[in-house]
Amino acid sequence: MFINIAASERQNDVSGSSIVQQVIVNLLKSRYVFGVVRLGIDARNHVACMNGAVVLLPAGVNIGHKHFVRAPETVNVFGEERSCAGEAVALENNKKLFVRSAQRAVHCGANFGGMMRIIMENTNAVSFAVVFEAALHRTEAGKCGYDRLNIRAAEKKGAAKFFAVTKTDSDHRNFYKTFDALKEVYGNKLCPTIIPYMEGNITKCYVNLMTGMAFSYDENGKATKVPVPEDSVIEEMTSAFMEAVATTDDALMEKFFEGEKFTKEEILKGLCIGIFDGSIYPVYAVSGLTCAGVDQLLYGLAWSAPGAFGYAGEKCTYENGEEGILPCDENGPLAAVCFKTIADPFVGKMSFFKVVSGKLAPDTAAYNFRTGEIEKMGKIVFVKGAKQEDAPAIIAGDIGVVTKMAGVKTGDTLCDPKNILKLAGVDFPKPCLSMAVKVSKKGEEEKVAAGLTRLMEEDPTITFALNKETREQVLSGLGEQHLDVIVSKLKNKFGVDVTLELPKVAYRETIRKPVEAQGKHKKQSGGHGQFGDVWIKFEPCDSDDLVFETAVVGGAVPKNYFPAVEKGLRDCVAKGFAAGYPMVGLKATLYDGSYHPVDSSEMAFKTAASLAYKNAMPKAGVAILEPIGTLTAYMPDENLGDIMGDVTKRRGRVLGMGASEEKGMQELTAEVPIAEMGDFTTVLRSVTAGRGHYTLSFARYEQAPQPVADKVIADRAAENEE
Fold first, then answer.
1. Domains and CATH numbers, the chain
2. Which H helix or E strand runs over 719?
């Protein structure tokens, strides 16, 4: 699995256009890099094999993922002029099978037809994507904005890891400082693969240590082969690369110590073995803005990334609850997982599938494990940048898109009805920042809801709900930037202009001491009058709802009026007393009263109950309750003190702390008033350089301090005046 990939240096380059879907999504969303790296060609092709060797095919010749070669020593994958887009390599080392194939690149060249500018469309849809930026200085290098959580998730899956460092051609950025900082965390597993040659603060070219070639790039990302510079840093990195390759095989290690040079085939062999068993993490230097080095990154993935075929298989759970391993087999039973959904304004709903076993075709009976229904198949296409190419089917080891599948959501498994199973979907992070949505034009609330519903199909990390209590539309996401992107999509795709505000906090009210009060409603204006008289005892209790009891003796209040009394109290409790928030923890006991045989009515007793409530509350010590959340925050060791101090400033109570399962991270548990957590996401990411993350869940209500309560009451009064 591709863990780390270069990010664009402009937000528009990241979220504003389509992906090189069949390359990057393939690498990012699956457990493996599939046997075919699709750059725009049909996957069902041929490759010539002669006497156990690969016949090198020229660029433009289709190659497939079904052909394996058992002679790694005879394989040549490095063309002097980078013509590897038409080459196929398959290696088998003992029980380890490597499949390498790259599709033809007709009209593409080194930059793949200009598709390399956009690295990825939506980072939220990428399971294990981490961004590394070349550092300005050593201190910054030690705080690279990488996500250790994603690394840990990749390690849990046993996935291969590739690192990419971006902004390497920006002024005053230093790739080598970043590399040293990463090496402090990941040790000698880090292997420099594509490195920049710098003169001062300017990057002159990129050196490919796999091929021993160097390329310079213009502002459009066009590559030009140049001589490899003679530089001590390059020599040092080359030595580190060769040493990493040597450690994967005893024969290579012996050759390395004897000072002999490796052949290109031996380099590829060692690199593949190391990536496969997790002893090598290749590091690529690229630029997301100019696409410098990105073509070499993709070629490197095509050469060295583990393929789907030859793995033991994908973990699955069968209908009876048993777990098993499903091999990647085109002729096996259907098993496919939907890892991404896009709401295209022209095509409609597009569901991206990774097919683990069998094939997904228009006539396939696809059983949805989640719904228990047979899904009706739509049109099948392969996405290539902004274009879609019709396809007869999606076979095992490949990804593709099925359009207009209304019943399918991200994470759903489609399988053979005769072999029902569930594949592991994508583990999406939970939203941690909520904002209230305010429409610019009245009456567009429904359009907002419809647009966000469509966007939620694309991005499961966002939620949207109407808070009935505060009467606000609340949008939740992973952070400020994430929500800003959603707002931008609402405007661009659905024509709805909205702004985001801090949501209102749902406070509560309660009483602190028991009190008794009378409520008497008497009205006589000629003819039939109104009369209701009750005595009610109010006292605190442990309940989120009104507890109503009766203790009337002697028929002072007829039983048929009891429901009216309770209804009157519930209407009052819903509106609170001090600040208009719902009253909780209240027990009301009707114990006495009187009635008139003619003038009494349900309405009269309902009014009398409300009068008793209003008369009692001033004497009951009404208090404001604020919601308390349980905070679990993760941050690097060096930032624990700062975050703990920030939590304390927010009136939080630290419950515990200690080392996290994530290497080099601390876990902090605390209880914090939710009203104080509005900008915590921003503060946490700022302090930790983007490495911190947290979860916040509602725990209970607690009495607010008097200054806080006074402010809540005053703000509510001012709001009502407006």
1. 11-32+115-301 (3.40.50.300), 314-423 (2.40.30.10), 433-501 (3.30.70.870), 509-620 (3.30.230.10), 624-717 (3.30.70.240)
2. helix 706-721
